[in-house]
Amino acid sequence: YIDLANEVQMNSWSNSPYYLPRFRKWLENKYGTVSAMNRAIGTNYESFSEVNWPSGWNVEEALVTEYDEYNDWELADYHKFCADIIHEYVPDMPVWTKIMSYTADYGDIHDYSYYNNGTGLDAYADVLNVNGCDAYNYLDWDKGRLVKNQWYDYMVGINYAPVFNGEDHIIKDS
């Protein structure tokens, strides 16, 4: 097995000139026309070149949801690139990425920090042969086993593959 990344996260929303044009192109590929995108997400752009990053992290804002899906795709696409290189030389080598269990956490659902890490498992389903994770179960945490098992079920529900918890914390990091 080859672990492509450890506790991977990505946030392409930045002042970088690299990602914004890619986000716009991703939207164009998804919707085809700007009018189709406007109808779907309730915006009123005249062209994809007018689209900018979301103004904040309100999870009800449709553009935030689009950004989140794009960000997941961007990071999964990079992992696919890495997996393809490995499979060029060792075709049957299983690959995995250790993804932290953010969406299984018990935090506020409106706290966007749980969702904007570029780790949407649906984007990885065609890339990974193993569901790798860092799902914790602190000894002094009443919800630990439930949250960890929910995360495992979530992973297998999206990608029917074995689960490997590469870092099963039983005590909190200091």
Description of the molecule:
The chain is α/β, with parallel strands linked by helices and 174 residues long. 39% of the residues lie in helices and 10% in strands. It has five helices and four strands. The protein has a four-stranded parallel beta sheet. The protein is globular. The two termini are 30 Å apart. The mean pLDDT is 82.
**Count of DSSP H/I helices:** 5
Low-confidence stretches: none
Count of extended strands: 4
Class from helix and strand fractions: alpha/beta
Helical fraction equals: 25-40%
Task: Tell me the overall shape.
Answer: globular
State Rg. Answer: 18 Å
Structure summary:
The protein has 174 residues and is α/β, with parallel strands linked by helices. It has helices spanning 19-31, 34-41, 62-89, 121-124, 144-158, and strands spanning 2-6, 95-100, 131-134, 163-165.
Brief descriptors of the model:
single chain, 174 residues, alpha/beta, globular
Write the layout of secondary structure elements.
Layout: E1 2-6, H1 19-31, H2 34-41, H3 62-89, E2 95-100, H4 121-124, E3 131-134, H5 144-158, E4 163-165
Parallel strand pairs: 1-2, 2-3, 3-4
